[in-house]
Specification:
single chain, about 350 residues, mainly alpha, 18 helices, globular, binds ADP-ribosyl-L-arginine, binds magnesium ion
């Protein structure tokens, strides 16, 4: 297997940042109208010469779109991996909690903040314990473990390591298997995308093969049953994606019914993967001057719901697959802290190579 180049690492972190910052503008809306979204995006592009001096009202030009909890936590994952050179649960947990304490208003999930408060207590001796206590001991199945996981496959090249450390990094906040299995799936998607060139059939087949194994353990089976789901719920949704991709177009209502646009990992990680795969092809509703990475982010946001998180996950996958060439400078420069993101990507690439 050829070693992925630095452009994929840059693309992955930039795609994730774009998805979060652009998606956050629309998070929580049940309906996002495409003309409104496209008009907002035109406001990010450089002013045409005749418009010079007359900056459009509400223009987002300049580093003006703030990132949310998705990026704040992704940065903590990356900074921990870079500082320690490998996964270190105590260091990562501390960074999550300290980051929350420093900037609590990044739009965190309602329940996860209790984990941070417990982690900040000097009485906390097991960093996985606060997550296990969430939801009366059931643990969170939110998408917070998945939204921040991209740093793991950008450090670990081995598939078993990707699975192991995606799970552990998610378990610091998400003890329900429907939460951490979503993180494993998202990490595997970035891991495969980094190899580039895979057809969407092969990409999906590989994910299904891994997830059928990941979801077959006792805890995954009992957590899914306890919530009234069928067995292997992620694998089943991946198979539904395969069906969807056989049609030339799938109505948005069907995508929302089968895959969802919600805050649960099960209702958002498969949606992000579907968005990436379907946007390899052009879309009659999205102007053709947008490239595949842009189309992916536009499509995710157009689904409404948890737009920042679905777009950040799909953006990470698409960015790893297409590389930084598809990251439009005007979009990137509209996002908070984009230069630091570029530096982190460079350091991750160096660590990845050093570990090989
Ligand atoms: N929180 C948000 N968005 C809404 C508010 C932000 C908005 N911009 C505003 O200003 O109003 N977004 C962020 O949260 C999601 C990630 O959440 P995470 O980290 O998974 O948190 P949590 O609290 O663990 O889970 C989220 C919710 O899921 C439900 N839930 C989870 N497990 C459950 C269980 N076992 N039983 C019942 N419910 C469960 C709860 O409602 C949790 O609060 C991302 O969208 C990120 O962008
Ligand atoms: Mg968010
Ligand atoms: Mg250790
Ligand atoms: Mg969100």
């Amino acid at each position: 297997r050829p070693r992925p180049g630095p452009a994929r690492f840059r693309g992955c972190l930039a795609g994730a940042l774009l998805g979060d910052c652009l998606g956050a503008v629309f998070e929580g809306r049940s309906v996002v109208k495409l003309p409104e979204l496209l008009s907002f995006l035109r406001g990010l592009e450089p002013a045409p010469p005749e418009e010079e001096g007359g900056e459009a009202a509400g223009s987002a030009r300049g580093e003006s779109l703030p990132y949310t909890d998705d990026t704040a936590m992704s940065r903590s994952v990356v900074q921990s991996l870079l500082a320690r050179g490998e996964f270190d649960e105590v260091d990562m947990a501390k960074r999550f909690a300290e980051e929350y304490k420093k900037e609590p208003n990044r739009g965190y999930g309602m329940a996860v903040v209790n984990v941070f408060k417990k982690l900040l207590s000097p009485k906390c001796s097991d960093v996985f314990e606060p997550a296990r206590a969430q939801f009366n001991g059931k643990g969170s199945y939110g998408n917070g473990g998945a939204m921040r996981v991209a740093g793991i496959p950008l450090v670990y090249a081995d598939t078993q390591d990707v699975k192991k450390f995606a799970k552990l990094s998610a378990e610091l906040t998400h003890a329900n298997s429907l939460g951490y299995n979503g993180a494993i799936l998202q990490a595997l998607a970035v891991h495969l995308a980094l190899q580039g060139g895979l057809s969407r059939e092969t990409f999906l087949e590989q994910l299904i093969g891994h997830m059928e194994h990941v979801e077959a353990d006792d805890k995954s089976l009992s957590d899914a049953r306890a919530l009234g789901f069928e067995d292997l719920p992620f694998s089943r949704r991946l198979k539904k994606i395969k069906e969807f991709l056989e049609f030339s177009s799938v109505p948005k209502e069907d995508v929302l019914f089968e895959l969802g646009n919600g805050i649960a990992a099960l209702r958002s990680v498969p949606t992000a993967i579907y968005s990436f795969l379907r946007c390899m092809d052009t879309d009659p509703d999205i102007p053709e001057h947008y490239n595949a990475l842009q189309r992916t982010i536009i499509y995710c946001i157009s689904l409404g719901g948890d737009t920042d998180t679905i777009a950040t996950m799909a953006g990470a996958i698409a960015g790893a697959y297409y590389g930084e060439e598809q990251v439009p400078p005007s979009w990137e420069q509209s996002c908070e802290a984009f230069q630091e993101t570029q530096r982190m990507a460079k350091s991750l690439y160096e660590l990845y190579c050093q570990r090989l």
